Structure formats: C-alpha cells, structure tokens
Amino acid sequence: MSNKTLFLKSGFVRAPLQNGVGRYVCQLQRVVLKFCKSHGGSRGLREFIEQDLVEFASNNPSIVVYLKPRRHRSPVIVGEYLNGDRVWMNMHNKTHSEITKWIEVLRTQQGDVASTRLRKNQYTDHPSIQGPWTPFTFKDPRLNIAELPDEEFGANNRLPMTATEQLKIMFEKKTLNIEPQKE
User: Tens digit of pLDDT for each residue in 84-94?
Assistant: First the structure.
C-alpha cells in the first residue's frame, strides 16, 4: 500500500440517505465559477457563462451559482456538496462543450468519491455472525459419502405434491385393494 492511500479518508460506497428511493435530492449545493475576463484560457468558461448559465441555473434551482472574476488567473470550477466535500477542477483551455459536460458530472455525483479509500468491497449494516451463506450450508452431511446419482438425494421433496401425482397414488392404492373377480 502506498503512502498516498494511507492518508485518504476511508469509508464505504453508499448512497446518501437512500437518495432516490422516495425522492431525489441533488447533492451539489454550490458551484463557484472563477474566470478571467480577458485571458485566452478562460474563453470556454466565458462562453458557458454567456450561453448556458441562465438555463443551467433555472433548471437547477437547488444549486447556488457564484461567478468570481479574477485577473490573469486560470479558470476554475469549485463544486461544494451537502456532505462537505469540495471538488476543484481546472478548466484552462477547455472548450464550451467540455465545460458543459464537466458541470453535468459535478451535478450528478455525490461528492469527492475519488479520494475515499474503500475498506471493503461489500458492506452491510447487519452482518451475519454465522459467516457467509453457501449453497451447501444446509445440506445433509450424508451427501458427502453418498455415491451419486442417488435416488434419495435426487428426489425433489421440497415442492408440494401436484393434483396429478395425488390422483396417481390414489389410483394405485385402489387397484391394489381390489381383488380379481371370479367368473
């Protein structure tokens, strides 16, 4: 394990407050667009502000959008989320369409998940004290020494008997009880 992964916050993959089960709450709380009014590297961000910002803000009323002009600095987008995470993205020399896509990425994710070190691949709130389940957990131990195929273990006795099978059994019982008639 490298030293870089030791200093990452550890956690589990989970949806915040079961988001989307009852209703969806956008996790992006605030977007700050920092740009230069005259620098060439900010051209794509200025085009986004002129063409699409008003539509983005009206489509997403829960997201607060701040514009921060700065002289002679590279354009930056900072996204702040409900869980306190901040995502900082450099937009130097990005086109208008690339910036639109990156803002959509910020809008749809739940925070800075890239900087979280996963503790386990699976997680549950109620772990089993009996260990993991396997298909052989509740099998009969006599199956270990049985020579297969075996009629006893091959029979499907877990399903209820069908009406046709019950009629066959009743018919067989009746034919065994009837004695042949003497002529």
Answer: 889 999 999 99
User: Cα dist. 52→45, 46, 58, 108, 139 in Å?
Assistant: 10, 10, 10, 17, 63
Q: Do you know the residue count of the chain?
A: 183
CA 42 to chain centre: 35
Closest CA to 62 of 84, 87, 29, 33: 29
183 pLDDT higher than 70: no
pTM of the predicted structure, to 2 decimals: 0.59
Where b means 16+ CB within 10 Å and e means fewer, 97-133 reads: eebbebbeebbebbbbeeeeeeeeeeeeeeeeeeeee
